[in-house]
């Protein structure tokens, strides 16, 4: 390994993430982390002593404040807007709560065509205006400093929440509907795909410069299931956002058998978890940018071991254009702040 003392030029910092998305040369490897804004930061925990998650997520100023926290605390290369994966479901008329430590709880799960047809959709701009206001605040604050990333859940992952009623790793109701009522399944995912595309388009209009489509549960599908039941709807989201002029990241977990299929909607960037080495992932998906892929649990251990594993990821990238350093999933709540800072410093100072 070799470390070099590089002065970070703000004019390059504001572009390095976007340049990496386009596989252009960068001064240092850009890094941001999923869930970088939130529960691992002391400032966020102090804010949560005064406000609930829902109060923060429905207040534009508070959402912007949390989004901006890691920019000062960690010196990451991009901000990702603070929101919940279920946020756009308000536009479909879905009622849900966010339960601490459990995630979304759907008041009325959708498991039939009649339940789907009972939804009363409204435009996303009317459903969650505070989110788009927050994006505008963050974009203005970071203008000339760093880009703003938006996000949305992919149709399959959101459908899983709506069908199961909560986070459920068994996916009994989801797979039952998928295999036994294909008409309702595709109608639900088609409606979700349209809402997600509208949600992302409105985020772009509000000021985001890139977005990530999260398919957090897609690893539960076989390649055949993914191709038949998820890919057409994910492809619609990418097709309907192709004209927005922003870089798009397609991310999933457990995607080792699905990697080539996830590249088919033609995202600019593929986000991978820690189960696929970077060099092998590039062999499989060809000439596009890759984001990843340190196991987030590594940051819970000794700092020297975390640095060693981060360096290994960087060595596999070998300075190749189009690498964005990230974790293979979100930052865990009890991750030490010092380890997060050390990771960013390691990535920014490493030279292959």
Search tags:
about 350 residues, alpha/beta, 7-stranded parallel β-sheet, two-stranded antiparallel sheet, 15 helices, about 45% helix, globular, disordered N terminus
What does this protein structure show overall?
This protein has helices at 10-21, 42-48, 53-57, 60-73, 113-117, 124-127, 129-142, 155-164, 172-180, 182-206, 223-240, 259-262, 278-285, 303-317, 337-349; strands at residues 2-3, 79-80, 96-99, 103-106, 148-153, 210-215, 247-252, 269-271, 289-291, 323-324, 350-351. It is an alpha/beta fold and 352 residues long. It has a seven-stranded parallel β-sheet with strand order 2-5-6-7-8-9-10, sandwiched between helices. It has a two-stranded antiparallel ribbon with strand order 1-11. α13 (278-285) links the parallel β8 and β9 (289-291). It is globular, with a radius of gyration of 19 Å.
Lay out the secondary structure.
Layout: E1 2-3, H1 10-21, H2 42-48, H3 53-57, H4 60-73, E2 79-80, E3 96-99, E4 103-106, H5 113-117, H6 124-127, H7 129-142, E5 148-153, H8 155-164, H9 172-180, H10 182-206, E6 210-215, H11 223-240, E7 247-252, H12 259-262, E8 269-271, H13 278-285, E9 289-291, H14 303-317, E10 323-324, H15 337-349, E11 350-351
Parallel strand pairs: 2-5, 5-6, 6-7, 7-8, 8-9, 9-10
Antiparallel strand pairs: 1-11, 3-4
Helix pairs in contact: 4-7, 8-9, 8-10, 9-10, 10-11, 14-15
């Amino acid at each position: 390994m070799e470390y070099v003392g590089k002065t970070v030029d703000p004019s390059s910092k504001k572009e390095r993430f976007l340049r990496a998305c386009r596989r252009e040369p960068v001064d240092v490897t850009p890094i941001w982390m999923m869930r970088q804004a939130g529960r691992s930061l002391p400032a966020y925990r102090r804010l949560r002593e005064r406000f609930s998650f829902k109060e923060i997520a429905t207040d534009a100023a508070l959402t912007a404040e949390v989004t901006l926290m890691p920019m000062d605390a960690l010196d990451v290369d991009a901000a990702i807007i603070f929101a919940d994966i279920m946020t756009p479901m308000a536009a479909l008329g879905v009622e849900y709560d966010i339960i601490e430590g459990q995630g979304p709880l759907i008041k009325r799960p959708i498991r039939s065509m009649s339940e789907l047809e009972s939804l009363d959709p409204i435009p996303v701009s009317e459903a969650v205006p505070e989110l788009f206001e927050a994006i505008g605040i963050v974009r203005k604050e970071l203008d000339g400093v760093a880009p703003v990333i938006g996000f949305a859940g992919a149709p399959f992952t959101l459908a899983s929440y709506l069908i199961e009623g909560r986070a459920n790793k068994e996916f009994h109701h989801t797979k039952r509907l998928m295999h036994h009522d294909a008409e309702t399944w595709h109608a639900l995912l088609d409606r979700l795909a349209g809402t997600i595309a509208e949600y992302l388009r409105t985020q772009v209009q509000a000021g985001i410069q890139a977005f990530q489509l999260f398919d957090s549960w897609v690893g539960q599908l076989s390649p055949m299931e993914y191709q038949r039941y998820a890919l057409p709807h994910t492809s619609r989201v990418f097709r309907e956002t192709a004209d927005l002029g922003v870089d798009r990241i397609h991310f999933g977990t457990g995607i080792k058998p699905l990697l080539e299929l996830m590249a088919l909607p033609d995202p600019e960037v593929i986000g991978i978890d820690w189960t696929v080495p970077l060099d092998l992932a590039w062999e499989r998906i060809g000439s596009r940018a890759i984001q990843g892929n340190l196991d987030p649990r590594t940051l819970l251990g000794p700092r020297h071991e975390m640095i060693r594993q981060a360096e290994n990821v960087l060595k596999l990238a070998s300075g190749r254009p189009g690498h964005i350093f990230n974790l293979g999933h979100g930052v865990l709540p009890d991750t030490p702040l010092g380890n997060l800072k050390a990771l960013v410093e390691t990535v920014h100072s490493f030279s292959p």
